[in-house]
Amino acid sequence: KENMRIQSLLWILHLLNLTEAQDGMNILQHRRLSSVSSDCRSGCATCSPLNGCLTCKSRFFFHLELDGIRQRGTCLTSCPRGHYGRRSPNISTCTRCKADCASCFSEHFCTSCHPGHFLFRGRCENSCPEGLTENAALRECTECPAGCEVCTRRNVCTRCREDLYFLHNQCRLTCPRGFESDVQLMQCIPQNRCEVGEWSHWGSCIRKRRMRGFRKGEQTRTRRILNSLSVHGDPCPHVSEIRKCVIKKRRKKKEIRMQKKGENN
């Protein structure tokens, strides 16, 4: 039916071309006007200035395109979006896809859909069958992996089942090593490792009452926690150290004065 409609349009274009020819022109002059010339677009076998291509060369598709309010014939190597190519011995034409198809391969096989429809097995449906996700970005029914409720591609999940944790576009029953579970967001989040700073200098040697020996003591050094650990992370290393030391004997004031006096002499 589509081919018959286009062939009828071609006859009408020929008749329009004849009626608008100058007075006194005969059929031979009209054929010369409609024959291939430098005014014809690429791919045209015959054309007219008013109506564009009338017939196409081999392997080209005839297509009517709008030129303002007028339709002009064109010859294309491939059909525009929303049309598919139909070949026949007499004339190859570009045929419009079904109304719900944005583009198609043939009359019964869509390759993309308009907004609000989803591609499934060559058809544009209002909704997807059970087990498939309505992908609004791609406008197609997508098969999601196990446990995934919404996905953009087969292995790219964006929302998991309520009892599963989300990590790296996948759904997991438990979080792997190095991650901990966030039960509110139902996500696996990286564990924070405890970071500590540099050791301070050793403090003064201080005698403790519990220590035996008059000159024995202890001195301490510390370091700060720079980044605290997660709830389930590995514990921080120790931040203080104690070591034994020997308390230096205090010199009497008389000895110090005697030493200074000797230095002055």
Automatic annotation (TrEMBL):
<dbReference type="InterPro" id="IPR043601">
    <property type="entry name" value="Rspo_Fu-CRD_dom"/>
</dbReference>
<dbReference type="InterPro" id="IPR006212">
    <property type="entry name" value="Furin_repeat"/>
</dbReference>
<dbReference type="InterPro" id="IPR051514">
    <property type="entry name" value="R-spondin"/>
</dbReference>
<dbReference type="GO" id="GO:0005576">
    <property type="term" value="C:extracellular region"/>
</dbReference>
<dbReference type="InterPro" id="IPR036383">
    <property type="entry name" value="TSP1_rpt_sf"/>
</dbReference>
<dbReference type="Pfam" id="PF15913">
    <property type="entry name" value="Furin-like_2"/>
</dbReference>
<dbReference type="InterPro" id="IPR009030">
    <property type="entry name" value="Growth_fac_rcpt_cys_sf"/>
</dbReference>
<feature type="domain" description="R-spondin Fu-CRD">
    <location>
        <begin position="42"/>
        <end position="141"/>
    </location>
</feature>
<keyword id="KW-0325">Glycoprotein</keyword>
<keyword id="KW-1015">Disulfide bond</keyword>
<protein>
    <recommendedName>
        <fullName>R-spondin Fu-CRD domain-containing protein</fullName>
    </recommendedName>
</protein>
<keyword id="KW-0732">Signal</keyword>
<feature type="signal peptide">
    <location>
        <begin position="1"/>
        <end position="21"/>
    </location>
</feature>
<keyword id="KW-0964">Secreted</keyword>
